[in-house]
Every structure is written in C-alpha cells, then in structure tokens.
Specification:
Blueprint (H helix, E strand, L loop, with lengths): L2 E8 L8 E8 L2 E9 L6 H18 L7 H21 L8 E10 L2 E7 L3 E6 L2 E5 L5 H7 L21 E2 L8 E2 L3 E2 L5 E5 L1 H4 L4 H5 L7 H16 L6 E8 L2
Antiparallel strand pairs: 1-12, 2-3, 3-4, 4-5, 4-8, 5-9, 5-10, 6-7, 6-11, 11-12
Length: 245
C-alpha cells in the first residue's frame, strides 16, 4: 500500500512547543505517532519526546509484519508509560511529566490505533469523518452520557481536564484500542492534538482527504487553527496519512 504522510507542528501562542509527531515506515508497515505534552505538569515536552522515542525503538525492534498490531500497540504504549515515569525520576529534582498519546499501525491495508488522553485520530473517507477516537476527558464523558451537548464543549469550565495520560503515576492508564479497519484508496488518517480539533470545525478537517496537495493543505489547516484561537492558541500539531493506491 502506498501513502502520503505529512507532519505539521506549530507553536501557537505558547512559549514552547510540547507537541511531538513522527511517522516511521519499515518493511511494509508504518507507525504513526502523536503526543501532546501536558502543560499543567512539569516537562510535558520530555514526556512527549520519551513517548515518541520509546514507541519508535520498539517498532524498529519488532519483527515485520507485525503478527498482532493491536497487542503491539498495547504493550508498547504501556512500556512508553514506564519509560516516561523513569525519565521523570532521573531529573534533578525528580518530576512527573505527562502526555497524551495516539498511535496507529498501518499494515497490509489495515489500520489499528490506540490512544490515551484527548489527542485524536480521525478516519476520513469520501469527505466525511467515518470514525474518530473518544477523548479521555470529563467533558467527553458528560457528552457520552447525554449530560452535555457537543455545542457546549468549548465553553465548559473543565474542558481542558484530561482524565488519562501517560506518565505521572506508576499505575498504567486505561488504553483505548480500536478494532482493525480496512483502508480504501483516498482514505485519510488524521492524528492531531487538541490545538487543532478544538480550534477548527470538523468539516474543515474532513476536507483534507480530498486536497490536491496534502502538504500545502495540512500546513494551511495548522495556520487556520492557530489564527482561530489567537491570542490564546495552543500548540497545533497534526499528522496526516492518505492512502494513494
């Protein structure tokens, strides 16, 4: 399977960029990664980078093709959590850095993804969102229980409260794993931090799949999200993978 993969990350109005994204392709398999270091805890950028490094190391060391992509994601994210905790303890003084995380394996025309926190993955087909991850957040839980309308998300006072993250406590967070999904030509997998999805409408995200020049469209989308939230823009990061065959 052939694909176009584009990463875009913008600092927004923050002092630093604590988001990270990376795509690793090897022997017919691809690993798509995105992390949003949590600014409410020390060294969010450390947690995000350790997550990327840990997942990449495990992917490069695994036999290909992956026999069980879902099990690989679960084990690897758990190991990344332990690596983040260990990295925090090695700092002077010790800290408890945390990050959200989303990861996707693309192999044999199938995708499988997992996430922790409120960074998202969207599967876009024929100009519409076919699937997306559900945030590990208080607001998402309220919406799923019917206690809050989707339109109230942006105004809720606890909209930034994330209920699960990698790092911090030694106890493993709950990891949500998708079922296998067969990809079609022109499908687009979009991984993104909340700096993107919270700032632009979903219809604009869905337009990426049909863009003529994916790199240009992804870059323009990042700028649009940054401008829409100015002067309080968060870091804006997205990773887009479009099936071309």
């Amino acid at each position: 399977m052939h694909s176009e993969i584009i990463c875009v990350s913008r600092q927004g109005d923050r002092a630093t960029n604590q988001d990270r994204c990376l795509a690793v392709e090897r022997a017919g398999s691809a690993l798509l990664l995105l992390a949003d270091g949590m600014g409410g805890h020390p060294r969010g950028e450390l947690a995000a980078q350790v997550y990327i490094d840990s997942m990449t190391r495990q992917f490069n060391g695994a036999e290909r093709p992956l026999a069980e992509p879902g099990e690989f994601l679960r084990r690897s994210i758990e190991q990344a959590h332990h690596d983040i905790v260990a990295a925090g303890l090695q700092q002077t003084p010790p800290v408890d850095p945390r990050t959200t995380a989303v990861a996707c394996i693309v192999q044999d025309r199938q995708a499988r993804w997992a996430h922790v926190g409120d960074s998202r993955l969207y599967l876009i087909r024929d100009g519409r969102v076919l699937e997306r991850t559900r945030d590990h957040s208080l607001v998402e839980e309220l919406i799923q229980r019917g206690e809050l309308e989707e339109s109230g998300r942006a105004l809720h006072p606890l909209r930034n409260y994330v209920s699960r993250a990698l790092g911090g406590d030694k106890q493993l967070p709950g990891i949500t794993l998708s079922a296998p999904c067969t990809l079609q030509a022109r499908d687009l997998l979009l991984l993104c931090s909340d700096g993107l999805w919270a700032s632009v409408p979903e219809t604009l995200l869905a337009c990426l799949a049909g863009a003529g020049l994916l790199e240009q469209a992804a870059s323009e989308l990042g700028v649009a999200a940054e401008r829409a939230a100015h002067p309080g823009s968060d870091n804006v990061t997205l990773l887009a993978c479009r099936v071309t065959e």
